[in-house]
Amino acid sequence: MEFTSERRLDDDVLERGFTLGGIPGLLWTPTTASAPCPLVLLGHPGGLQRMYPRLLGRARHAVSGGFAAATIELPGGGDRPRMTAVDEARADLQRVLAAGERVDDGIVDRLVLPLVDAAVPEWRAALDALLALPGIGGPVGFSGGVIAIAVRLAVVEPRIAAALLFAGSYVPRAVLEEARRVTIPLLVLLQWDDTGNDRQMALDLFDAFGSEEKTLHANTGGHTGVPGFEGDDGDRFFARHLR
Amino acid sequence: MEFTSERRLDDDVLERGFTLGGIPGLLWTPTTASAPCPLVLLGHPGGLQRMYPRLLGRARHAVSGGFAAATIELPGGGDRPRMTAVDEARADLQRVLAAGERVDDGIVDRLVLPLVDAAVPEWRAALDALLALPGIGGPVGFSGGVIAIAVRLAVVEPRIAAALLFAGSYVPRAVLEEARRVTIPLLVLLQWDDTGNDRQMALDLFDAFGSEEKTLHANTGGHTGVPGFEGDDGDRFFARHLR
Q: Does residue B89 fall inside a structural domain?
């Protein structure tokens, strides 16, 4: 892991850019912490620069709650090499949605599964590097992003102790099965009127999770309309489980 | 409204029993408030004495948030005259559930609609009396209890500014239609594994509400297993809308 930039955003937050095996990432840490912080990994749909303002808002929430926050670019996202087959599947999905047709499982599988397979080892490698830094301890939370990536991470990565999932993207049927093996505490956000998502599938996914503590927060509004108070609820969820 | 008892529970909470037209009720107020408090009405399934420990817990939450809290006995509940037809419908429902049969609309209508028709005018009369007391102002929130009563109150009672609903009882189809006319902010609690409830109907009801701000909190566990952190979430919901 090499740091490529460093700036103090205000008195309390230090933002550092880094690369890890050619993958760009961002790390936000409190400047005032006296002990190693728990870490919250910030998921996103790909495109760190485009997502930066929202990631920064979420990072500030995490840091003000006493956590470090970090994220890395997704495979095929931002300036990273495209994943052509995934791009084709995404274009197919958009055509189907625009035509008001039923989204078939094949498209969702082609869109999501290769991304999960490629991304999960990268996030685990990032976790190795981040947890080796002074000032960052455990436990680790995962927050938002492509829900299928979060589900796989929750199954395979024992260092992740709690996850705040955003049920805002299509989920392959195989991920429903994977969800039964998730046992960590979950807070699942669902935008009730998200036209680019399958509400019933999101509810089926929530039902499938094996976790003893799982909470669904569904709110009115579309994909990007998550109410501000959910940020506070997310802080409290992580405070309960990462402290 | 006549007060029948008064005791100071601790330094901060005054509990008073009252009757209003023969209906018993309880009122909890902060002892230290300097200005009139917003009021939270505490719904329940009937049987004030049986429900007292849980009502008191919820009242303490409300008072610690700076609100007054009050409740009245339901028609047919506690020592009030039985509602024979409602009791029969309840027994029918329990038989059907025990036999694992489908709950038909007729039973639910017979169980819930007469209760709603009888209870709602009583809660409105209680509101008249409570808001006339020194130390209690508006706005008013409604919390929990029989969800069909809360829905009707939210439609007909303009003094209710926000409602925390517990989707923990069967809902007549007619109430789904009524729900479309609800426009106040809502927080709806659903226990995902409540075997004495119809989860799909609860989700349909959430979908039907006309409110621009509505949030569903679904948690694992049965009817009485609402996690403690939902009490805090409820406080914050009312703090957002009643202050």
A: no
